[in-house]
Amino acid sequence: MLRTTLAVSAVVAALLAPTAAQADGDRAIPALTDERGRVLTLRGWNVEDKANRGDQALSAITERHFRDMRAKGFNFARLLVFWDDLEPERGKYSRAYLAKIERILDWAEKYDVHVLIDAHQDVFGPAFGHRGVPAWATRTDGLPFTPHPDDWFSEYFEPAVQRAFTHLYADADLRRAQERMWRVLATAFEDHPAVLGYDLINEPMGELGEGEDLPTAARRIEREQLTPMYNRLADAVRAVDRDSWVFVEPTPIVGEGVPTGLGRIDDPKVVYAPHFYNTGMEAGADYDPAAGWIEAYEAAVTQYPKEYRVPVVVGEWGPLNNSLPNMGRFYEDAMASLGRYGSGWAGYVWCYGGGYCAVDGEGRFRTNKERTAQPYAEAVAGRVVSAAPERLEYVAGRGGATELSLPEGEWKVRVVGKAVAVRKDGRVRVYAVPGARVVVTVNRG
Question: Rounded distance, CA 311 to CA 116, Å?
Fold first, then answer.
């Protein structure tokens, strides 16, 4: 996660709301869909345990996470898993770790939460004091590494870390190892009903060339190293799983309004999965509505999905300090922007405490985080005609029920058209005659 400042020279510059891309007026970015062809909207949170490993790996994630997320209206979890836990020794995969992942997926299924399995790395992996790529797969050519405990993102620019990425992308045996790792994961979970897809690597970085500035390097890395890697890993997944979505990320530099250099991923079910962080806000600054950051980010982040015709799901977002004076405005502007182009998002992070946590120890939203809990259409069985605040209009298809999610509170739901609504446990299912034009409105009771 982009939690800290990059060099200034690096900067180039919704109630019931399915994405704008799903409505008739804007078909430039396609929608995410389920196996029945329903238009999906994902809203949820990252779920993680970075502290524990080995026998205690993933122990901080409990059934409560999924019960509480669903109770507040969320239907999506981006689950962080670590290659160093899955394959601590080369060629020896941990059955215990796979079983722990499966237990978490079972909880998600119980509460009807879609899961994205994210192969997470921070500063490459344990060789540099973090999590991700195993130490045995880390090659530095003896280059130096100096920790930066107060500014950990800057560790990505340490020579040893940059060289480790180069070897991961270039060395044939490491390529094969990464592909095998993904085949193991996909084989284990391709039939699990909670699994929506696979995020092939979190926030990939790379090595800056002599004289390159960061935006130029990021585009080269994305074009020349990430694009072929994603094609290889997608092929590895497809060897065992033909149905799940594969999610691909640009480098984190996209957060500064730098369009990605990624090329085409030759797979029929690709999702573009950028992250949405502002360096100033990550360093503690308040949101400045006049600065135009959200507008610049949106302009940059929509170029790739428009060109390659793939859906967008933002994999991480949300500032560290949510109680600053302008943060209420930030959440309003961010939610509106995300709804204009994306099929969903996962906030950072669902945990019980301080810092980035969405809720406190009692499960209550922390300041301004409650603004993320809005009614929305989880799945639309048909063609969306329009999506505006408090109003959804669609032409019903044959994909089954349209499903709406309501956060905690009193809500009045009105359905007009040849349809009936069934309401239960904070959700509304609308059953419509195929071809009928249906209008659903929601208002606080």
Answer: 15
Give the phi and the psi of residue 195 in degrees, each rounded to 5.
-80, 120
Burial class from Cβ neighbours inside 10 Å (0-12, 13-18, 19+) for residue 85 reads buried
Spatial distance between the Cα atoms of 65 and 355, rounded to a whole number of angstroms: 17
* Residue 205 neighbours by CB under 8 Å, 6+ apart: 156, 161, 162, 165, 221, 251, 252
Please give the span between the terminal C-alpha atoms of the chain, in angstroms, as a whole number: 38
- Percentages helix, strand, coil for the chain (3-state, rounded to 5) are 35, 20, 45
The closest alpha carbon to 223, from 264, 253, 254, 267, belongs to 264
Query: Which pLDDT belongs to residue 274?
Result: 98
Q: Is 279 exposed, middle or buried (0-12, 13-18, 19+ CB in 10 A)?
A: buried
CA distance 17 to 10: 34
Q: Which two tokens stand for residue 181?
A: 């790792």
- pLDDT for the residue 27: 59
Place of tokens 């359905």: 415
User: Whose CA is closest to 57, among 93, 86, 78, 89?
Assistant: 86
Phi, psi of 444 (to 5 degrees): -65, 135
Secondary structure letter of residue 420 according to DSSP: E
Helix (H) and strand (E) counts in the chain: 11, 18
User: What are the per-10-residue average pLDDT scores of the chain (445 residues)?
Assistant: 35 35 60 96 98 97 98 98 98 98 99 98 98 98 97 96 98 98 98 98 98 97 98 98 98 94 98 96 95 97 98 97 97 96 97 97 97 95 83 94 94 96 94 98 91
| 152 vs 148: CA distance, rounded Å | 5
Which residue type does 431 have? Y
What is the model's pLDDT at position 388?
Answer: 67
d(CA 412, CA 417): 17
HSE-up (13 A, CA, CB side) for residue 303? 15
pLDDT at 5: 33
CA distance 103 to 109: 10
- CA dist 385 and 377 (Å) reads 13
Looking at residue 373, its pLDDT comes to 95
